[in-house]
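Here is an idea for our session: we take a single protein and study its fold together. Which protein we use is up to you, so please pick one and set it down. Once you have written the record down, we can walk along the chain together:
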Amino acid sequence: MSVSVVGFGLLFFYAFSSSGEGAAVLAGEEMVLCHFEVDEPQVERLESLIQAHSTLQEVLFDSGFTAGQIHYLVQDVQSVYDLNRVMPGHRIIIGRLVDGTFHDLEYHIDDEEYLRVKYESDQYVGSLHKHDFEVVVRELYGEVESSLWETLVAQGERPQLIESLHQILQWDIDFTAIWPKESFKLILEKKYLDGEFVKYGDILAVQFVHRAGTYSAFLFENPQSRGYYQENGDGVRRPFLRAPFAFDRRITSRFSHSRYHPILKIRRPHLGVDYGAPRGTPVLASADGTVISAGRKGGFGNLVRVRHPNGYVTGYAHLSRMDVRRGQRVKQGERIGRVGTTGLSTAPHLDYRVQNRSGQYINPQELAALPSDKGVEKEYFNQFVLLRDELMERLASIPEIEPSLSRNSRTD
């Protein structure tokens, strides 16, 4: 608050205007005013990380709270946020005045939201707030050397970006078969807080140059929908994932009508695709559907089979564990089990199989030819074209330079 005082030893009276500003008044004299600011009370803040196996009570005790204060704190803010749910690794910041009096508390619920607690009118008052991020749009170019993962990590990017990229391109790009010299360009949002990179926002546009062609996707939102669309306005989403994993997995055996079996020592059909992966790797449902079986099945070991609305059936064999049961409905990308080596298996892997509407086994990699999801609505197509052209022009302007020199690429 700004306070005005007179610099003379004269009688005067102090008045407040309707705006709350101070004003000194003295009839018949010209006055010289001096101003000084009354600062907010000085607050000392102690920041801590919730440790594994520790409790909120332990953190607050270490910060000078009594058992009674902790009880009322938790109780008073219960309707806003349950402080008994604090999680290891999350930040808690406690502010006290120089005399030790409690001033405020912040608990960072996640990277989007935090709880603030003040003490007012003899009770603790909690409120939820969104972090005020600075959102910066960045451009990124990369050329694959050994894998997409290694290429992005080498440029200082985090695994979350690779996951987001996979979510967009998984229907068109086989991430288990990316070759050296394939390349990509991205336009994406990065979120900063107090100058520090915190998380990724949306990928606004992506262009991936694959040996089979160039694939592009653009984020477009209208009053009816929000999603990623191809250059022609078709949705990127397909009925089936190219592979039932979140990240790159190595194909160790392809679909074949005559394959030498490493255990049986004979040649016989292998009507699926084997993916080598570490034991425990999450296996995802490749499409929406209903689990029709989940249990032990001879040489397949632990086997989950899912029937899909379009009549197709997918199978996931040799699992170390099954996370679904018969009759359960699953969504595309939902975890249904984990990679294992049960049944006739020499090493941890997934045997992934697909049957068509007639019950015949088909090559799972042929599912990519199925039509894509619905496209941009007709009434918004012109708006999409304008945005697409703007983003395509910007993608084209991103220089194709060595990854280590790629502009604006690092998270720091």
